[in-house]
């Protein structure tokens, strides 16, 4: 169930959010019972610290306290309030007003903190008994509850898709998820399957997916009939064995998340449609499994792309850029005003910036600046990487136009982005090389699938597309 705000009620517990630096000053303004109880239990306003203060008649809590740390600590901590919300007992809570120092959350951060609170209730319990959702929050005054809940629903969709094992989230099921989303918002979804990919000149999508039992396909979702044309392309490799360049077992364990790009663009599409942004939205998802079989594509093969460029296959484990290439070419033929691809594409990106940052590339400096400006606002960190033109020669082998896996290991994320840019054509283009996974639990982010970059993009779209 998607988390939502609780309805206001008379028995909601008032939650005071206390800054660590002003905690003692605030306690001095409280009744002796409150101050004494807090001091006796060592409450100092630290991040993640919570305390229920009992009513004088013993009938239940009179209030609750949550620490908000100090400015330096918050700079290193996303979703500060969520760190405490995760520890509160089940119940309905309402934030205290900030007039008496009892709510340290800055107004500019309130919706971000509410999003984090709701995401503490996210549970991926498809394969186990459902747990209680935890502490519920009444939407604070001034917060656009519908907008926050829409972001939460989109993030839950992305997480659920990534977290689902490949046996239950193959190309068939990914197609079904896209079609369900289309039906919900009155969009259309067309699918090109298997041999039709060859007839429709999408040969690299077919080549990568033809060895799998689940048929390769291209999912094409469209919504909106006026406004700027925005096209999202998401890598939908539902499981990646590495192909004939087989991955070791230690590298294959997380490959159910290799469709994280498609999951993230579907989440972003949900945000856009729910907000009814005045755009013509198109979502393209090449959905395949990279499997091992007698008809698998091979190292040394040369594939001809939709664009006509030939690609030498030096590693079958660099398959994501191949399926994206055909989809990007198709997208560019429609002359979108903005073209964005998202993919769990390279390990090099993780080496460069770790799992928490979403590196991205932009052909227009203004678009990069817009994204950088909204990333902090949305608690969705990104980091710009360069389309470094001098590295173009690294993706050009001797036998074909392009090399899908340049030797040497240098600049792996950049060379992959340069490869994709060749197929984005003249379109104004952005590419996100995301990880799509939280390797260890953090506030509002349990271990598992996670969306990256989508909220930052969503918030930047009005500026980027002059909406």
TrEMBL record:
Domain Cytosol aminopeptidase span(s) in chain numbering: 315-322
Pfam families: Peptidase_M17, Peptidase_M17_N_1
Protein name: Cytochrome C oxidase subunit II
Organism from which the protein derives: Phaeobacter gallaeciensis
The keyword Phosphoprotein is assigned to this record: no
Matching InterPro entries: Leucine_aapep/pepB (IPR011356), Macro_dom-like (IPR043472), Peptidase_M17_C (IPR000819), Peptidase_M17_N_1 (IPR048816)
Any one biological process term the GO annotation gives: proteolysis
Family matches, as PROSITE patterns: CYTOSOL_AP
Record-level GO cellular component terms: cytoplasm
Source lineage: Bacteria, Pseudomonadati, Pseudomonadota, Alphaproteobacteria, Rhodobacterales
Family according to the record: Belongs to the peptidase M17 family.
Keyword annotations: Aminopeptidase, Hydrolase, Manganese, Protease
């Amino acid at each position: 169930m998607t988390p939502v705000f609780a309805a206001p009620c008379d028995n909601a517990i008032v939650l005071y959010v206390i800054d660590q630096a002003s905690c003692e000053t605030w306690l001095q303004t409280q009744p002796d019972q409150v101050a004494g109880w807090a001091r006796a239990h060592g409450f100092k306003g630290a991040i993640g610290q919570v305390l229920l203060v009992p009513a004088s008649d013993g009938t239940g809590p009179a209030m609750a306290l949550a620490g908000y740390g100090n400015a330096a600590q918050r700079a290193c901590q996303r979703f500060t309030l969520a760190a405490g919300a995760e520890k509160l007992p089940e119940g309905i809570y309402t934030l205290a007003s900030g007039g008496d120092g009892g709510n340290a959350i800055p107004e500019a951060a309130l919706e971000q903190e509410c999003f984090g609170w709701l995401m503490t209730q996210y549970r991926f319990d498809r394969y186990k008994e459902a747990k209680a959702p935890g502490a519920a929050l009444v939407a604070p005054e001034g917060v656009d509850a519908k907008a926050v809940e829409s972001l939460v629903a989109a993030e839950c969709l992305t997480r659920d898709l990534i977290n689902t094992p490949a046996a239950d989230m193959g190309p068939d099921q990914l197609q079904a998820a896209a079609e369900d989303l289309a039906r919900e918002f009155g969009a259309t979804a067309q699918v090109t399957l298997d041999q039709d990919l060859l007839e429709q000149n999408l040969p690299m999508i077919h080549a990568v997916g033809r060895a799998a039992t689940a048929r390769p396909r291209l999912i094409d979702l469209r919504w909106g009939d006026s406004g700027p044309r925005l096209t999202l392309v998401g890598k939908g490799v539902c499981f990646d064995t590495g192909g004939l360049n087989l991955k070791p077992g230690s590298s294959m364990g997380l490959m159910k998340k290799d469709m994280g790009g498609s999951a993230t663009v579907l989440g972003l599409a949900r945000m856009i449609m729910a907000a009814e942004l005045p755009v013509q939205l198109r979502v393209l998802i090449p959905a395949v499994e990279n499997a091992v079989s007698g008809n698998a594509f091979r190292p040394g093969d040369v594939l001809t792309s939709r664009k006509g460029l030939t690609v030498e296959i030096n590693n079958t484990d660099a398959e994501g850029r191949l399926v994206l290439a055909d989809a990007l070419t198709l997208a560019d033929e429609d002359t979108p005003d903005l073209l964005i691809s998202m993919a769990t594409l390279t390990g090099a990106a993780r080496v460069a910036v770790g799992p928490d940052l979403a590196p991205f590339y932009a052909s227009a400096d203004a678009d990069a600046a817009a994204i950088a400006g909204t990333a902090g606002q949305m608690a969705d960190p990104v980091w710009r990487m360069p389309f470094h033109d001098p590295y173009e020669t690294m993706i050009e082998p001797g036998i074909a136009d392009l090399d899908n896996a340049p030797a040497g290991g240098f600049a792996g994320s950049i060379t992959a982005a340069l490869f994709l840019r060749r197929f984005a054509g003249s379109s104004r283009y952005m590419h996100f090389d995301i990880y799509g996974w939280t390797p260890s639990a953090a506030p509002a982010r349990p271990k598992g699938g996670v969306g990256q970059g989508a909220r930052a993009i969503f918030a930047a779209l009005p500026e980027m597309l002059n909406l």
